[in-house]
Automatic annotation (TrEMBL):
<dbReference type="GO" id="GO:0006388">
    <property type="term" value="P:tRNA splicing, via endonucleolytic cleavage and ligation"/>
</dbReference>
<keyword id="KW-0520">NAD</keyword>
<dbReference type="InterPro" id="IPR042081">
    <property type="entry name" value="RNA_2'-PTrans_C"/>
</dbReference>
<comment type="similarity">
    <text>Belongs to the KptA/TPT1 family.</text>
</comment>
<dbReference type="InterPro" id="IPR002745">
    <property type="entry name" value="Ptrans_KptA/Tpt1"/>
</dbReference>
<dbReference type="Pfam" id="PF01885">
    <property type="entry name" value="PTS_2-RNA"/>
</dbReference>
<dbReference type="InterPro" id="IPR042080">
    <property type="entry name" value="RNA_2'-PTrans_N"/>
</dbReference>
<keyword id="KW-0808">Transferase</keyword>
<dbReference type="GO" id="GO:0000215">
    <property type="term" value="F:tRNA 2'-phosphotransferase activity"/>
</dbReference>
<dbReference type="InterPro" id="IPR022928">
    <property type="entry name" value="RNA_2'-PTrans_KptA"/>
</dbReference>
<protein>
    <recommendedName>
        <fullName>Probable RNA 2'-phosphotransferase</fullName>
        <ecNumber>2.7.1.-</ecNumber>
    </recommendedName>
</protein>
<dbReference type="GO" id="GO:0003950">
    <property type="term" value="F:NAD+ poly-ADP-ribosyltransferase activity"/>
</dbReference>
<comment type="function">
    <text>Removes the 2'-phosphate from RNA via an intermediate in which the phosphate is ADP-ribosylated by NAD followed by a presumed transesterification to release the RNA and generate ADP-ribose 1''-2''-cyclic phosphate (APPR&gt;P). May function as an ADP-ribosylase.</text>
</comment>
Length: 181
């Protein structure tokens, strides 16, 4: 078993490479965001990040947020969501619960209440189905504030929602009129 620091270091590295900058180590993701496991391990080692298939498997299985996933054959790996590069994760439209939540830092509230939730440099806005997860997300941005999102009404108004493999709800934009403090 690897130590927690090593797992965290590799997990952060994989998030960077598989969500944002595969070119950092000279790999290419396919159109669905998959990277070949053997190529990833080889290229990461060339750039000083050493891990083997077992450690990679441990990173994927122990991550509480399930940010990474293997394909069925376990010869490819990808990030479950959060990409700033264009990939088609192959998720189908889903009907969301009536209420979803979005955690953010207190300093962002005036802007969000003015413009709504924007995806910015990502492919989607990320929403949680529970308050606890939204609070944890908000804590990463300072003093946490949780917004309630009228997802059911948005769906009725023909907004599209997806549910990622790790349980994160995704949508393109949440206009301010669907938000409540």
């Amino acid at each position: 078993m690897s130590d927690e620091k090593q797992l965290l270091t590799v997990s952060k590295f994989l998030s960077l490479v598989l969500r944002h900058k595969p070119e950092t180590i000279g790999i290419q993701l396919d159109e669905n965001g998959w990277a070949d496991v053997e190529v990833l391990i080889e290229k990461a080692g060339i750039y000083g990040m050493f891990f083997d298939r077992e450690l990679l498997k441990e990173v994927v299985t122990t991550n509480s947020k399930k940010r990474l996933a293997f394909n069925d054959a376990m010869n490819k790996i990808r990030a479950s969501q959060g990409h700033s590069i264009t990939v088609d994760l192959g998720y189908s439209h889903q009907k969301p619960p009536e209420i979803l939540y979005h955690g953010t830092g207190k300093q962002s509230i005036p802007s969000i209440l003015s413009t709504g939730l924007e995806k910015r440099n990502r492919q989607h806005v990320h929403l949680s189905s529970d308050m606890e997860t939204a609070i944890k997300v908000g804590q990463r941005h300072g003093k946490p504030v949780v917004l309630k999102v009228a997802a059911g009404q948005m769906y009725t108004d023909e907004f599209v929602f997806y549910l990622s493999d790790n349980g994160v709800w995704l949508t393109e934009h949440v206009p301010a009129k669907y938000l409540e403090l």
